[in-house]
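Fold this complex.
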Amino acid sequence: MTTTIHVLQPVSMGRRVKNRIVQGLVWLAFAIAVVPLVSVIWLVVTNGLKRFDLEFLTHSMRNIGPRDAGGGAYHAILGTLEQVGLATLISVPIGLLTAIYLVEYGSGGRLARSISFFVDVMTGIPSVVAGLFVLAFWVLILGLGYSGFAGAIALSILMLPTVVRSAEEMLRLVPNELREASYALGVPKWKTIMRVVLPTAFTGIITGVMLAIARVAGETAPLLLTVFITDSINSDPFDGPQMGLPLYVFDQAQRPNITATDRAWTGALTLILIVMLLNLVARLISWWRAPAKGR
Amino acid sequence: MAKQIEVSDLDAYYGSHKAIEGITMTIEPRSVTAFIGPSGCGKSTFLRTLNRMHEVIPGARVDGKILLEDQDLYGDDIDPVSVRRTVGMVFQRPNPFPTMSIFDNVAAGLRLNGRRSKSELEGIVESSLKDANLWNEVKDRLNKPGSGLSGGQQQRLCIARAIAVSPAVLLMDEPCSALDPISTLAIEDLISKLKNEYTIVIVTHNMQQAARVSDKTAFFNLAGQGQPGKLIEMDETSKIFTNPTQKATEDYITGRFG
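Structure:
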């Protein structure tokens, strides 16, 4: 038997070099990924700030001539908030209940598997197809006309799979021990879900809903087909064409005048700010409800 | 009020796999009964059949009869939820509800089973925490989250939560396996105190613990891998540890197993 001599070696040159190279590549990849993000934000902020004033936030485009300066996006901001709000009201209850079924009741059954499959299929629906569906069904067949609500339906079709998937993942993360602890106290299953499982997963579910909202807030194609376009304020989402911020940007950017292009940039800036504000609110809610915080 | 449990010819399955077979035993009220045996012999499975927690696992089912005093736990018209209210359980790993404070954790069973007045809740929470020997350590921070306590404190919190709903029987599935010796001692003291009021059944891998805390001991074993676990013998703890009837029991408790 040969005796092995244990000598502790320094890190070899080859490994050091490899380490440096891979580190460099990771940083490079990160930098490349950040370039478009930063440049988009930079462009939108610098171009958008020109018209980001009180008039823009409080006035519509009614009676603003094609070459006039001034005007604003109040009607579009209002429309976006109403359409996205309605879409959230439709898709969050349905999505959350679907996720609860998939995790707590379905568990591998045939129905649960087919629901899972169709949720995956829905994830892949192009947004314009959702818009076409609502246009064909709601606007043309039922003859209910363009409205903010029709747009909300189209947006909720797009939100639903995101909400289901994220809520499902969060519910699966809740340790089974907590459910068992609750059952062992003689708590019925539905109450266990309501009072133990959902509060534990709450933060994650809110984050998922916010991501879904951020995703649909910028959708243009489905709104173009269902909400149409208007220059006036229409605060009733159930009747007549409305405006939305993405539509506003689309509409203004098409016009040849520099005044319109400026409004388009400011509209884009407003949209980004709204999404960021919603995210901030979600963070605050999660922080306020965080489980392991001494209150 | 403590109750007696009478099990006759009980089998439990996970899908088509039979985990335990033909178990018959009587568990006396106001006493501690310990289940010992090698891993995988079905002690925990059997424990979970005693409050119908076994059937929570998909595909799991039970054959046989368990009488709590004179009621069959598996009777056709018996609600498993009411069984679990009567037969409480403490788990291997402490599992306080992370979204709830210490107070809310103890009050959880009562709150989730119907409204109670605040003063009534406060009284029950205090007495449960006192029974669990935890009151002095947490009385100044009842509003802090339960997950901030140490492992041993969390386990006593779970015991307080289980006894707050005043069950007749308390099942404990290796309650000390995740704890240090000092916390283990605290919980063993607690078990000896609680047996004056409850029927206690404890699964343990620690034979010294079984010898210290229990009045009766049941030894479970399985014939081989994939075979169902069986009850080998059950007797006074002192007899099991000094003069067991079965050879397998003697081999196991003296460490000459397999």
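The radius of gyration of chain A is 25 Å.
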